[in-house]
Design a protein that fits this description.
By secondary structure, the protein is α/β, with parallel strands linked by helices. The chain is built from 7 helices and 5 strands, in the order βαβαβαβαβααα.
Length: 167
């Protein structure tokens, strides 16, 4: 589902890469807002709703995380491990590793830690546009998204309680 409420969290420390990604999203007319964090600690703070990301109306949980591996303060692999150790809904968020590393050890480790996909950053802008189109098609149109709101999970849990158990 591609809706304006579906945030993409881009964890990327290279300013030029952020600008190129935003430009590519605009060219493809991707309507999802993008929140950018520039290091591993900031990524975790965002997901935990810590300062300065406490306002969940302004900084909602993302529907997708695009995670660079070579982040300062905490690597992308450390962030990925942290995400997968959390309780739902954070642990359910799809994580696409988007990095310049083609090293087999990085690819294997990312999947071992629970990455949903591993993409190597294209060298050309045209390649980036094609990648963003593919991301949009798969993650925002074809893919079924997990439930990421705590409130709706609690309501769903209460809705499944048998009336005989309540009486």
């Amino acid at each position: 589902m591609n809706s304006p409420q579906s945030i993409i969290l881009l964890a990327e420390d290279e300013v030029n890469d952020v600008l190129l990604m935003k430009r590519a999203f605009g060219k493809v007319k991707l309507i999802n807002p993008v929140q950018v964090v520039s290091d591993g600690e900031q990524t975790i703070a965002y997901l935990q709703g810590q300062d300065p990301f406490q306002n969940r109306e302004k900084y909602p949980l993302p529907m997708l995380i695009l995670l660079d591996l070579k982040l300062p303060r905490r690597s992308g692999l450390e962030v990925l491990a942290w995400i997968r150790q959390q309780e739902a809904p954070v642990s359910r968020i799809p994580v696409v590793v988007l990095t310049s590393s083609k090293q087999t050890t990085d690819v294997n480790r990312a999947y071992e830690l629970g990455a949903n996909s591993y993409l190597v950053k294209p060298v050309t802008f045209e390649g980036l546009l094609e990648m963003v189109k593919a991301l949009e098609m798969y993650w925002f149109i074809l893919n079924e998204q997990p439930e990421l709101t705590l409130t709706s999970r609690i309501l769903a849990d209460h809705a499944t309680v048998s009336p005989s158990l309540v009486n």
